[in-house]
Structures are given as structure tokens and as C-alpha cells.
Write a structure and sequence with these properties.
The structure holds 2 protein chains of 2 kinds. Chain A is of the alpha/beta class. Chain A has one domain: Rossmann fold. In chain A, helix 6 runs parallel beside helix 7. By secondary structure, chain B is of the alpha+beta class. Chain B has 2 domains: 192 residues, no CATH class; 80 residues, no CATH class. Classes of the chains: A alpha/beta, B alpha+beta. At the A-B interface, helix 2 and helix 4 of A face helix 8 and helix 9 of B.
Chain lengths: 223, 298
């Protein structure tokens, strides 16, 4: 699905990632960890075409990311659900409209029943008409997750999804992501929260990857 | 093409909502389009009026000329008669007649007022000559008049008519140039407003891209909004401009020399093309700004 082969990425004259290879197989669950600034977010961005590798090959659903047009990248984004730490919503639209945005921009009809079900799944059905600035950090993260999955994507990339929420909410988000994985979705979560990774042990079989010194390592035994 | 235009104008209510309302640029675009449309109506009126003037001076006056007979009072009637005899036998002259005293007084009234003591002044007699389609030989006529009526002078209007016709044609060209400049300025203003809106909505663009929006979709959301604003603003400006032109003094009230700056007959339909043309300019300007901005942000 997503393959990185001997990938390097640098900003200007500096190198952030080097010699990095990774394959996200269908239905797999990965954690990506490492210290702040190690390149977790950069690696995530390489996985959904936001950044282009300065060396090596990135293949997204069989397509060479370096050769993709902007329209190709847009099509890829419809197959990859992304959850950011800062969520990124359109503040002038309601929560329900924000969650349905991927359907809107792809010209697909919004089934209000399904949308309501999805909001109920993330526990936000009562806040459907609220605007993003009115939501708490945890509500925003769950809304971002709902938006990421509304197109039923094959891959879900979550970049520090629990960065701004309390422990209880972190576990709730983790549970939602594990449920998605059980439905067959490929999940990659970037986090520096080792407690969260350990908590996942009872729920899912996941691989833990660690970025340090510009390289990607397998972090010990699989959970 | 028509169905595409209707689809574009009809829009997608949900898609329209993705771009937040922008008060300042919205008002700027509507005002700029209205002001430019208002000016375009006047430039158009000027072009059409000067066009009419050039046609009139070029064609209608070109078919007429005047013979002025100056002579001592006792010879005046005889010389007028001699001129008329010459004209009757001149090929190319369709009609000729001496102006009556009342007609001559009417011609002089704008300069000397209504109480001119016409009978006591040695005013030359004027003979109006109308040419046929072939026209007459002016040099030959002058030579014959010199022999038959020494006090007669042929004025075929060419001396003053040509510069006026040239001036009217240049005014028409300047009017058309003004319309083009107004259209270009409108395009520039809308480009600036659209670029400002695109830059102010960088976060919106980022979110839309994140959820899989294609550049064409993002551009369309901005383009449609600015096109409709320009259409609405130009519509208001055009109506105000047409109202102002309609309120101008009529040609008769302003005098026969100017044909009136207003529109005549079917010419009133021309201003109605301004709003759709403004919309086309806005469409092209915003689309170009959107594509450029989105390319820079990729």
C-alpha cells in the first residue's frame, strides 16, 4: 500500500531522514515513535504525498509519489485518512460539515444517517451543529478521526492524535483506531507516548518503529 | 457551453460554503465592478454618440453644400437667379433652393439673438445644394459660378467637415480604448482582491487539500464567488449608468449640433452586455489568481 525504499529527506542543506525503508501492508498496525524533531511528522507527510523524498522511492498505492501531479495527490488523499495533532478544521463550518468535508470535496452525496452514525461512533452526535472553536481538544481529535474515516480510506495516518488530550481520552481514541484496524484498515500512529503504546498491547498486534539519528529502527519486540 | 455556464452559476451550495465569507474583499469587488460598469456605460455612450456624429457629418453633410451670394442689394436677386440656372444644368445636383429669410434668421439666431434687424443688414443669400449619389464636380461648378455670378461662393463643407469627422472618429476610438482600459483595470482589481482572499485563506486551502480536494475544486469555489460578485456589482453599476445617461438633456434641448450623448433605439441594448462581460473578466482574473496561488502553495 505504502512503500518507502531507501528514502532520504532534507530541508535545504540539512538531512532529516536518510536510508529509510518501510512497507505498510494492508491491515497492519504500526506505531512510529521517537524524540521530538526526529522526523515523525515528516515521515507521515511522505506517506500521504505532502512532501516528496529528496532521495529514494516512495510508492503510494503503487504510484511513484515523485511523479504524481497535484490531482494524483488529491486522489491519494481520498484513500488515506489523516489525523493531525492540531486537527485543522474550517472554523466557519459546523462539526458535521467538517466531518463530511471529504465527501463534499469529492462530489459525493452526504448520507445524513451515516454521518449521524459516524458522529455517534466517536461520541459527538450531540455536538454536530457546534463549530470547531467551541469543541474541547478531545472532541476535536475525535472529530478529526471521524473526518479521516468518512471516505472509508484504506490507510489511516494519525500524527500525535493524543498530544492534546488527557489519558482517558487517549485511550478512547486508541480504542477507536484499534476498531478501525479490526475492520481491515491499515493504521500508522506517530506518538512519543510510550504509555499509549503499551496500552495497545492488550488490544492489537502492532509493530513499533522508532526514528533516531535520521534512521528508522524496529523498536525491539513487536507488542 | 450554456449548460456549463448554468451549472457554474447554479453552483453547489455545500461547495460554496467551504470558503468563508470575506467582508472586505467582497465589498471591494462589488464596489469596483459597479464603479467600472458605471464608467463603461459613459464610455460606451460616448463611443456610440461620436460614432453617430461621425456618420452624420461624414455622410449626411457630405451630400449637401452651400452657395453664398454676396452682392449689392440691387444685384442680389439677379445673381441668385443666375446661380439657380447654373445649378439646374449642373450634373450631380439633385436639388437646390435658396433659404428663406426665416431660415436664415433661424441660423443666425444662436449668435445674434431673436431681434436681429434682418432687413436692414447686408446679409448674403444662402442657397442649399443637395447632391445626388454621383455628386458634382466642385471645381467645374466654381468656374461656372465665377463666370455667371461673380458674387457666389461655393462652400462644399469639406474644409470644416473633415477635421470634425476625424475628431469624432478619434473620440469614438478613445471611447473604445477607455472601455478596454476599464476592463483591464477591473481585471487587475479583482485579481488583487482574489489574491488577497486566497492568501487570507491559506488555512482553508491547507484543510481542503488535506481532505482530498483537487486544485480545480478549490479554484472553482473562489472563482464562482468573485464572478458572481462582479456580475452583481456590474449589474448595479450598469443600471445606475443607464439611468444617468437617460437623465442627460435630450438632443433637441442641447441643440442640433450635438446629437446627444445618450443611447438611441437598439443602442440601449449595448450596456446590457456590460455585466456578463464584467463577469467574464472576473472569471478569468480570479481563475488566473487562484491557479497561480495554488501552484505557489503546492
Amino acid at each position: 500500500m505504502i512503500e518507502l525504499d531507501d528514502v532520504s529527506y532534507g530541508y535545504g542543506s540539512g538531512t532529516l531522514l536518510t536510508g529509510l525503508s518501510l512497507t505498510l501492508a494492508p491491515g497492519s498496525f504500526h506505531f512510529l515513535t521517537g524524540p521530538s524533531g526526529a522526523g515523525k511528522t515528516t515521515l507521515m507527510k511522505l506517506c500521504y504525498g505532502e512532501l516528496i523524498a529528496t532521495h529514494g522511492a516512495v510508492r503510494l498505492f503503487g504510484q511513484d509519489a515523485g511523479a504524481m501531479t497535484r490531482d494524483d495527490v488529491a486522489m491519494i488523499r481520498r484513500r488515506v485518512g489523516v489525523v493531525h495533532q492540531d486537527c485543522q478544521f474550517l472554523d466557519h463550518m459546523s462539526l458535521a460539515e467538517n466531518v463530511a468535508l471529504p465527501l463534499t470535496v469529492s462530489g459525493r452525496a452526504v448520507d445524513t444517517g451515516e454521518l449521524s452514525e459516524l458522529l455517534k461512533w466517536v461520541g459527538l452526535d450531540a455536538q454536530a451543529g457546534a463549530h470547531p472553536p467551541e469543541l474541547s481538544g478531545g472532541e476535536r481529535q475525535r472529530a478529526a478521526l471521524a473526518r479521516a474515516v468518512i471516505m472509508s480510506p484504506e490507510v489511516i495516518l494519525a500524527d500525535e492524535p493524543t498530544g492534546n488530550v488527557d489519558w482517558e481520552m487517549s485511550l478512547r481514541l486508541l480504542t477507536l483506531l484499534v476498531e478501525l484496524n479490526r475492520m481491515g484498515k491499515t493504521v500508522l500512529i506517530a506518538t512519543h507516548d510510550m504509555h499509549l503504546i503499551r496500552s495497545a498491547k492488550a488490544q492489537v498486534q502492532a509493530r513499533v518503529l522508532r526514528i533516531s539519528n535520521q534512521r528508522l529502527h524496529s523498536a525491539g519486540a513487536d507488542l | 457551453m450554456l449548460s456549463k455556464t448554468l451549472h457554474f452559476l447554479g453552483g453547489d451550495a455545500q461547495a460554496d460554503r467551504v470558503v468563508p465569507p470575506t467582508g472586505f474583499t467582497a465589498r471591494l469587488t462589488v464596489f469596483a465592478a459597479a464603479a467600472m460598469a458605471f464608467l463603461t456605460v459613459f464610455a460606451l455612450a460616448l463611443s456610440l454618440a461620436t460614432g453617430r456624429l461621425a456618420d452624420r457629418w461624414g455622410a449626411e453633410l457630405g451630400k449637401s453644400s452651400t452657395i453664398r451670394v454676396s452682392a449689392p442689394e440691387e444685384q442680389l436677386d439677379a445673381q441668385v437667379l443666375a446661380v439657380m440656372e447654373v445649378l439646374v444644368t449642373t450634373p450631380g445636383v439633385k436639388d437646390a433652393r435658396p433659404l428663406s429669410d426665416e431660415e436664415q434668421a433661424a441660423l443666425l439666431e444662436p449668435w445674434f439673438g431673436p431681434d436681429l434687424p434682418f432687413d436692414t443688414l447686408p446679409i448674403p443669400r444662402l442657397i442649399e445644394v443637395i447632391e445626388d449619389a454621383e455628386g458634382y464636380d466642385a471645381d467645374g461648378l466654381r468656374a461656372r459660378l465665377a463666370g455667371e455670378a461673380p458674387g457666389a461662393v461655393l462652400d462644399d463643407h469639406a474644409r470644416w467637415r473633415e477635421p470634425l469627422v476625424n475628431a469624432a472618429r478619434r473620440l469614438r476610438a478613445l471611447g473604445l480604448l477607455s472601455i478596454l482600459l476599464i476592463a483591464a483595470t477591473t481585471g487587475v482589481m479583482i485579481t488583487l482582491a482574489a489574491s488577497a482572499a486566497l492568501n487570507a485563506n491559506a488555512q482553508v486551502i491547507r484543510v481542503l487539500r488535506l481532505v482530498g480536494a483537487r486544485d480545480a475544486y478549490i479554484a472553482r469555489a473562489f472563482v464562482r464567488r468573485y464572478t458572481l460578485r462582479a456580475l452583481a456589482g456590474a449589474g448595479v453599476g450598469t443600471l445606475l449608468g443607464m439611468g444617468a445617461v437617460a437623465a442627460l438633456p435630450a438632443a433637441d434641448a442641447a441643440g442640433g449640433f450635438l446629437t446627444g450623448l445618450g443611447f438611441r433605439g437598439l443602442h440601449w441594448l449595448w450596456p446590457l452586455t456590460i455585466p456578463p462581460l464584467a463577469a467574464v473578466v472576473a472569471f478569468a482574473a480570479t481563475r488566473n489568481a487562484a491557479i497561480t496561488t495554488l501552484k505557489e502553495r503546492s
